Structures are given as structure tokens and as C-alpha cells.
């Protein structure tokens, strides 16, 4: 296992306001778009078999060692086994780090930074891996590391942990006894034998002793009463498979009972299992899961980690990088450069795997700013961003994977067209298309590869692949043009609204919000219209809406809110003619407004930097917006996200601080990605409005409506 840090140079789209003084601004672009090089930090973790150690050391020598490098961090058995080879080949001193300290540091890192890191294993379910929502407070937990023996560690904080128990009966016992019983020397082959065996041929069951269940004690007749018990009375040879399976059950049950007792003793309900005995093997995960469920009477769940095989290397790297304090940052998994969790089924890609559940690579990108929970979430520990789990819903999964496949050629074409002056744009666009297509095929076979499969993860994977091939913002020119067109209409929209009576204006404002949300280039039904009908505009969008008239009213007749947090969606008509008139109305009522936009580009969603320029131009036309900006009653912030969807548990820390300081009591979430694909069921501690236009026929039909039906969900928290 190799872990290293690199700086990655990639392209980013920047916007900068023109100096329009003395110019005819009607014929000038709203702002300048430039593509610049940016350096970001990336962590690389590469897993390899020991047989490739020489190749790995050659890679380190050629690419990672410089004249300032004196020491290389190492942990685990390899730190001792390959110490002399490493020092000779690289000319560096090997600094061995404590194994358990590294494991725990690595575990804390993945629990904090990878939302779908933890899973429960369910062999007989349609979904093998049941991913858990990470609790915002990851401590305390029990880490059961099953190597040669078993170590049980209670982890209370980042730096506080203690060994509270263990056993000499662990993976080494299974391997050693298994070798004696079956003459099989390889661990993986031993597990393969166990997967084919029938332990009841060797084990004595409760029903073998009592003729059925032992009802007085509530014991099922199929429970193991004595491991290998039948070998004392049966006058026959037992198969290698049956003996291996019996041995696996015996050791797993022992470990499970021990882990349960320690969890109860220390009042812990989270038990994570790791070590080479687990290593993603379906047979061991299944037996450990059964054991924990039985001995805890279903009160405790056996939990496993997607990146379990990386923990030691991650921890060793973090120890070596302590002077840079990597834990002060938030990190995100880069789906484009990471391998996925493999299926435990031998029928899935049998040639691509030598062992079930293994990874090849993990890449983590450092995010510009720390990410935290939205303070207004009612219960962050139960918050699930995504509305539909495609891992579970086979029909929805098939539809959305096909939908993304069919859209792929168009996305690649737009990516190439966004860089007309680049000689290799077509070549890079084709590489993007091929990479994302391969990801989609992997997800068809293994929907759990990157955690819970959702529309959000499909969109985010596409954005990661676009960025890998230097297409940072394929819709930048579209957004620039649409922002310019919409700004020319802003004053007439405001004049029209101001001419209405109060009740009519409220209805018109909400209808305008929804009409603006129609302009979403990520929806095929809309992009087809926008490409075939260039004159399609705000009024045409209003006529498309499928709603029930006055049922769209938002009750603003009460006292004004202190502060409204609005998560904006698309550029152009959406934010300028839909969102800003609504913002203006709130400001006029005395409500402060925090307008949150994406930190980075995704589809035609408005970015924070674009919103600054748009707001500046609106303020020059409108005294309400101008004075609100001047008096800091209108605040523009970035979300910390570069996704068309919204995870309220991973928001920019600065936004969270503002929400608290301004005593925010209304949250508005706009758009299909943010209010339907995510957050439809999100429960907040304040009033909330979730609104969107459904621009997908299949989704509209599933929800019992028509395309361009509206979602208008106004929620007041229970007192």
C-alpha cells in the first residue's frame, strides 16, 4: 500500500467583470471568461500485492523522491519485512510508525471525509452493501482489528484511544488450523473452500442434542451447540470445504461475542471491523454480521469500511504530514480517479479480481474551505441528503443509468464546443466520454461501488470526469449569454410586479420563481426546447407550468422573517428574473437575505463569482438591492459545493457561521437537483420552502404528475 501527496495542476473557469465605463454595455458581454491553471492538493492511495514491491519502489524512486527527502514513513508487517529492501533501493531511512495509531488515524480520516464510508453486509439481500449515514460526531466507537490475533480498541477522540481487550484466536488461528485440517496454505483459497462448505455436516447443532429447539432457553434448533462436535461420533471423512466452513464459524462467533461484550461493557453502539481477516471477503463479513446480531439480540450492527485496506497507510501518511495539519481541511473522494468497491459475487468481472472486495486506488482532493453541517438541520445524525436510493430501486436505477448514457454524447459535444480554440478539445472530450461511459457500466454491475448510488452521485461523477480532462465549465458561454439577456429584462419584470396589488404580487413572485427554474440545461426536455426555440423566454416558461393556480401562494402575510437563506439554482432567467424579485420582496419586508451559490461550476448552475457580478449589475438598476448590499442586509456566500445537488451536511463553514449570526428562520431550496433529488425529505428547525419544476417525464409520471408540474413544499416545524 502506497500513500503520497501531490499538487495537481488543472484548469478552472474564472469570470471577471469588464470595466464598462464609456462603453455601449448593451453590446458588450456581461463579464470576461478565462480558463486559468490552478494548483490543488491531492492524496493518492494505491493498493498493490507484495509481489509488486520492486515495481512500487521504482515508481517511488522515479517520481516521489527528491533531494530533500530523507525519511519514508511505513507501518504494518511490511515495514519490518521490506525495511532493508526499501532503504537499499531508495537510499532513505525507514521510519516505522505504530500500527494501531496509524489504523485509528486512518479510520478517523475516512469516517470524517467520506460520507458513504460505512456499510453493513447483507448477503441474502438484493443489495449486498447497506451504506450508513455518517454521524456528525464520529466518536466514540469500537475498532475490532482482526489480524493474526484480535485487538479491540475503544476510540474516544482524535488522539485518545485505548486497547481494552483482544484474543489470540483470530485470522492467524483460522489460517493455521485451516492449513492443518485441509492442507491448504493460502488464506484466500481457504476462504474459497469455506464459501463452498456446509458447516452442519461437521458442527453439532442444538437439534442434534435435543431433537429440536431448546425452548426453555429460547435457542433455535439450528444454532451451533458444539463446533466440530460431529467429528467425535461420525465414522467418516469430512470434506475440506465443510471443515473450513466450521472453522470459520467457530472463530467468527468467538470474535463476535467478544466484541459484543466489550461494546456493552463500554456502552458503545458502533463497532467497526477491519484487518486482513475481513479485507472485503463476503464469507467473513457474513459470519461476523450473524455473530454480532445474535449475541447483541439485534441491538448492535457489525459495520465495515469501504476503504478498510487503506487505513494504515492513510494514518502513516497523516503522521508524516502533521506539520501541514491535513486534518484542518475537508477532503472529498475523487470518483474519476478512484476504484470502486467490488462485488462479492464471483460472477461479476471474474477476470478483474483476484480477491473479493479489494480496491486499487483512492484519490482524495483537498477542498478549498472546511465543510460543516447546516446549523438548521433538525437532527444531523439522521439527515439523508438523497431522496431515492438507486442501489435499492432497480427500476429507477435502470432508468437513470440509461438517461445518463443517452445524454453522454451531448455532454461530450458541448464540452468540446466550449473550448473552440483548443487543438486537443475533441480528443479530450472523447476521453471524457469513454471514462464516464466505463464508470456507468461499472455502476450497472456494481451499483454500490462508490457508496449509495443516487442521481447526485451520478452527476458528481460526471463533473469529476469532466474536470479530469480539463473541462471545468462547459456551460460558461451559455451562462454568460443568458445572464446578459436576463439582465436586460430585469427592470421591466420589476415594474410589472410593482404595479400589482399585494396578493397578486405574491402569486406572481412565486410563479416567477418556478418559471425561472424551467431554464435548466441539465434537463433534456428543456435543453431540446432551448436549442430548437432560441426565442423561448420567461413568459413562455410561465405558460409551461402545470399547477393549480392559487395553491402556489406562499403565506407572507405574517410578521417578517429575521433572515432567509436561499440556495439558488440556475444562471440567467432563473436567478435574475425568478430569484432576485423574490429576494427584493423579502428585503422590502425587512427580512435579511443570505444568497448561497455554488463555489464551483456544475451544468448551468450559477456560481458564487458569477452571482457577484450579476448582483452588482442589478444593484446599479434597483435601489432596494443597492441599499441592501450597502447595509449588509443582502449577503452573497458560497456553498462549498460544485454539484447540481445539495448536501446540507457538507456546507461551507463561512455560510454556517452567517446562518447562526443572522438568526436565519427561513430556508428556500430551489431546483430539481437541490429540492427533489436531494432534500425533499430534509427536516429543518425553521420554516422552509422547497420548490422546483419537474423537467423529466419519467420522474413526473412516477410522482403522479406531468412534465413541468411544480413542487411547492412549504413546511413549518412542529412546536
From TrEMBL:
Boundaries of every Damage-control phosphatase ARMT1-like metal-binding domain copy: 404-705
GO molecular function annotation: ATP binding; hydrolase activity; metal ion binding; pantothenate kinase activity
The keyword Cell membrane appears for this protein: no
Catalytic activity line of the entry: (R)-4'-phosphopantetheine + H2O = (R)-pantetheine + phosphate; (R)-4'-phosphopantetheine sulfonate + H2O = (R)-pantetheine sulfonate + phosphate; (R)-4'-phospho-S-sulfopantetheine + H2O = (R)-S-sulfopantetheine + phosphate
SUPFAM superfamilies referenced in this protein's UniProt entry, alphabetically: Actin-like ATPase domain, AF1104-like
Keyword Nucleotide-binding tagged: yes
Cofactor(s) required for function per UniProt: Ni(2+); Mn(2+)
Subunit field text: Homodimer. Interacts with PKM.
Protein family per UniProt: In the N-terminal section; belongs to the type II pantothenate kinase family.
Name under which the protein is recorded: 4'-phosphopantetheine phosphatase
Organism of origin: Zosterops lateralis melanops
